[in-house]
Amino acid sequence: MNDGVFQNDAPYKTGHLNKRVTLLKLTEVEDEYNLTHQELVDAVGHKVWAKIEPLRGAAYLEAHKEGVKDTIRITIRYRANVTNDMFVKYRDKLYTIDTIIDPAEAHAKLELMCKIREAGESSAEPTEQGELTAGEESAGGTEL
After folding, report:
1. 47: which of 103, 130, 131, 139 is 20 to 30 A away, CA to CA?
2. In angstroms, rounded to a whole number, what is the distance separating the alpha carbons of residues 25 and 57?
């Protein structure tokens, strides 16, 4: 399949990776009162070039079938230290990384399947039965 970024494992065409994104990770930070809290910090130390595109066709239908809305594919050059507990920031949008794909295990590019992180979204999400995962309490003491 020719996605426009690679042709027969040829190097990148410079015009396709045309967005500058920041890879972020959560780290424990200690404040002046010796209290720790989590903060998003730059995981790489600089912005990286990326291609950002919404899913289309069969990939979109597959993601939509699983109930995932607004799935975005972010393509970057291969980096060994990218994990799916990181975030991608582009302009004023923050994306959570759901899946990392290394096509053909070629270590040439990474496809990050991401979704937009909504304001106030926590890391703990309801399970299929509607129960909250550890660390979350239901609002007002009512059960779901």
Report:
1. 103
2. 31
